Amino acid sequence: MQEQKLIEKDIFSFWLNRDPDASAGGELVFGGVDKKHYKGKHTYVPVTRKGYWQFDMGDLLIGGESTGFCAGGCAAIVDSGTSLLAGPTTIVAQVNHAIGAEGIISTECKEVVREYGEMILELLVAQTRPQKVCSQIGLCVFDGSYSVSNQIESVVDKKEKRGSDLLCTACEMTVVWIQNQLRKNQTKELILDYANQLCERLPSPNGESTVDCHQISEMPDLAFTIANKTFTLTPEQYVVKLEQSGQTICISGFMAFDVPPPRGPLWILGDVFMGAYHTVFDFGESRIGFAKSA
User: Fold this and answer.
1) Cα 88 to Cα 266: distance, rounded to the nearest angstrom
2) Which of 61, 113, 119, 203 is most buried per CB count within 10 Å?
3) Sheet hosting strand 74-78, strand order edge to edge
4) Which residues contact 210 (CB under 8 A, 6 or more apart)?
5) Which pLDDT tens digit goes with each residue over 69-127?
6) Quick one: average pLDDT of 37-54?
7) Nearest CA among 269, 263, 268 for reference residue 150
8) Contact 45, 226 (CB under 8 A)
9) Is 147 exposed, middle or buried (0-12, 13-18, 19+ CB in 10 A)?
């Protein structure tokens, strides 16, 4: 269409309607935007990887507080073909804990907190680089910013990972959680208890986690940091309601998706995010824009 000069501008835009009872499910506009479907101005962020509409994002906030893992930056892509929000297990476990989502209990995670939690805490208090902690206590062989499991991802199938790699991954998550709680000046007992609780909120391997439909109003707002601005999702926006056998089932809009470096950590912002924010894909200027949906 661009080569044939059939569109006015080198852009296309999405408006997705999350109301299941509405007559219109959404709108895709080639060459422009429909102004009645968004409020205010779009915030634009440069595309960092063409072909995937990838860009750089910052922290995910739970109730206004940092989750830590992406504070230094994560990659993200916008994908209308993905229903939910997919991101690092380390953060999704924190989201699950905050919204009361049912998860799975990780024995490796609990073992790390029980056997090494205090040591991890003491090393962080002593200003040990977080990336070095797990190798220093012997749970990760690789002494650097990436774990052993990340380095051998392309060689060894996930199902064949050794127990030591699972402990390494659990350790790396625990470091992030403890570091985050230390910033809040929590006591040692509260920090280790919190980490242990997160071990019980790890996302299901199947991806979806259920929440109590009656508790939606009590759940915190969640916010993505993009282009130094926060894009907030309310519980009504990030909880997906499904009808099954005449009953309403509530599903968390977050699922775990771990991509190793150098391409990751990575978020996929699917329909849950695009339903809340009108999205402009500007291939002329190689950028993506977001504005509140109307």
Assistant:
1) 7
2) 113
3) 54-57, 74-78, 266-269, 85-87, 254-256
4) 101, 102, 249, 250, 251, 252
5) 998 899 999 999 999 999 999 999 999 999 999 877 788 999 999 999 999 999 999 99
6) 95
7) 263
8) yes
9) buried
Question: Angle, to 10 degrees, between the axis of helix 107-125 and the axis of helix 163-183?
Answer: 50
What confidence category does residue 129 fall into, taking pLDDT thresholds of 50, 70 and 90? very high
**Are the CB atoms for 53 and 285 separated by under 8 Å?**
no
> Which residue type does 95 have?
V
Structure tokens at 204: 């299901």
Domain 11-102+205-293 fold is Cathepsin D, subunit A; domain 1 (2.40.70)
Query: How many angstroms separate the CA atoms of 231 and 279, rounded?
Result: 12
Contacts of 79 (CB under 8 A, 6+ apart): 53, 268, 269, 270
What separation in angstroms does the CA of 28 have from each of 14, 25, 57, 110, 271?
5, 10, 24, 46, 13
pLDDT of residue 148: 36
Per residue in 221-254, pLDDT tens? 999 999 999 999 999 999 999 888 888 999 999 9
Report the C-alpha gap between 130 and 201 in whole angstroms. 22
Are the beta carbons of 57 and 36 closer than 8 angstroms? no
Comma-separated ranges of CATH 2.40.70.10 domains in the chain: 11-102+205-293
**Token reading at 93:** 């476990």
